[in-house]
Amino acid sequence: MSMHATEPVTFSTRRVAAMVLRYCYLLRSSWPRILDLIYWPAVQMLMWGFLQLYVAQNSTFFNRAAGTFIGAVLLWDILFRGQLGFSISFLEEMYARNMGNLMMSPLRPIEFIAALMVMSMIRLAIGMVPVTLLAIAFFGFNLWGLGIALAAFFLNLILTSWAIGILVAGLLLRNGLGAESLAWTFMFLFLPLTCVYYPVTVLPNWLQPVAWALPPTYVFEGMRALVIDHVYRGDLMLQAFAINAVFFAAAMAAFYLLLASARRQGTLLQTGE
Amino acid sequence: MSDHPAISVENLVKVYKSGPAVAGISFELAPGSITALLGANGAGKTTTIATIMGLLTPTAGRVTVLGAEMPWQRHRVLHRMNFESPYVDMPMRLTIRQNLTVFGMLYGVANLSERIARIATELGLKDLLDRPTGRLSSGQKTRVALAKSLINEPEVLLLDEPTASLDPDTADWVRSRLEHYRKERQATVLLASHNMAEVERLCERVIMLKQGRIEDDDTPEHLIARYGRHNLEEVFLDIARGRDEAREAAQ
């Protein structure tokens, strides 16, 4: 008789905590992994910050719109690093050849995804909090001063990053490490289309509907409205949230379809390409 | 003990794009039994075990474990099963204690610290608990994998080549632990192995697979007698190569 007879038929926070603990053990054991979380966001922020200083000195508009570039790069990093934090934790299991152990354990896919979301937040906090403090120290730009608007921006960006992370995880399960590059590059498709550094009106007319179909576009437009015009666009945040809900549901559906396909094709047994 | 089989495989078929891997096999394993699944590479052993574990969806047929149909009802029974395979690793940067803690939590083991201490003592890992798994010898890693597979005291234990690439002493030690565990817990064990001496020692029943079909199914003693051979390895060669070819090779 097994030492525990209860059937784990429901969502288990204990199993989510087990996976979060596993990734925290990993982070704790490797200082290069922690350094990597801070290094590139800091470099990006400093580069765009100094560029903004230079442009502002030579342009009345950018002088008035101080903080647009730094704000954009910090919000972009929430989007990009949020997805990377999710996908890298997932990839760690493939690199460690541990996926088989997890897939044959009582861990449910939804619990695995929940743990990856928590890790995405933890990795984001480790990477972004020091960088936002650097932005205050170097350029006087206080992201935290955006208050309630920052909370709305963050919620929408992190939801998009998780949706993409979930889709990429499904593709990795279905196609193995041959799909690894998607984890690193998928979000860059959003860089020009979500108008991180310029308004949507800059895009050609035919491309603008595509931009407005992506939730981060609303966040970056909202950020510019706040920094340049000092107006909080709650309407944009609500629209972004509605599209995010669709994105997230679609990503979950795709993940379960790809997982079912992996079970049919036998790719859960493979760990390589 | 239940009269129902611990594992039931009915007309299992698994076809990949590259062709059929399992072509309609059926067998039942009684609770508390220990059975070997034998066959040459590509015979369908890993596919069969993966289907039993719920990693693969059958193309046709039905697999149940402890009454739950796999893979659809796997979450009803996964906490009562476990497995060991050389084709998966434990995370190398984590210490043995950390790995066992994580898997113990995943399997819902009660009094986990005590369980880890007990299993570490039983498997000779007590002094290594705080060492990263990646810094262990292959024999020590196998013991860690065994500790993980026994952490929840499973009723059904699936083993895919549990002693592959181990020295004879460590392999013998692992077999002793498995024998002990099976007797102590009355667990059902299904074992895939290429080591015929191991199978003769451990298993009360052998299912021989060839090209995705069951070629024979009996006790090791009966198989050896029926094929007129001295040991299970010769029987294996008879089946894998075809009887005449095996005799020629022996001559």
Task: Characterise this structure.
The complex is a heterodimer of chains A (273) and B (251). Chain A has 273 residues and is an all-alpha fold. Chain A has one domain. Chain A contains 12 helices and no strands. Chain A has helices at residues 13-28, 31-57, 60-64, 68-95, 99-103, 109-139, 148-175, 180-185, 190-193, 208-212, 215-229, 234-265. The two termini of chain A are 40 Å apart. With 251 residues, chain B is α/β, with parallel strands linked by helices. Chain B has a single domain, classed as P-loop containing nucleotide triphosphate hydrolases (Rossmann fold, 3-Layer(aba) Sandwich). Chain B contains 9 helices and 10 strands. The longest helix of chain B has 18 residues, at 168-185. Chain B is globular and about 50 Å long. The mean pLDDT of chain B is 89. Chains A and B meet through helix 1, helix 5 and helix 12 of A and helix 1, strand 6 and helix 2 of B.
Mind summarizing the main beta sheet of chain A?
none
Mean pLDDT of chain B: 89
Cα shape of chain A: globular
Q: What is the alpha-carbon Rg of chain A in Å?
A: 20 Å
The strand count of chain A comes to 0
Ends apart, CA distance between termini of chain B: 48 Å
For the sheet with most strands of chain B, the description reads: 6 strands, mixed
Q: What's the total number of strands of chain B? A: 10
Shape of chain B: globular
Going by CATH, what is the homologous superfamily of chain B? P-loop containing nucleotide triphosphate hydrolases
Gyration radius from CA atoms of chain B, angstroms:
18 Å
Sketch the topology of chain A as an H/E string, one letter per element.
HHHHHHHHHHHH
Whole-number tally of structural domains of chain B: 1
Low-confidence stretches of chain A: 1-8
Binned strand content of chain A: under 5%
Percent helix of chain B, as a range, is: 25-40%
| Alpha plus pi helix count of chain B | 9
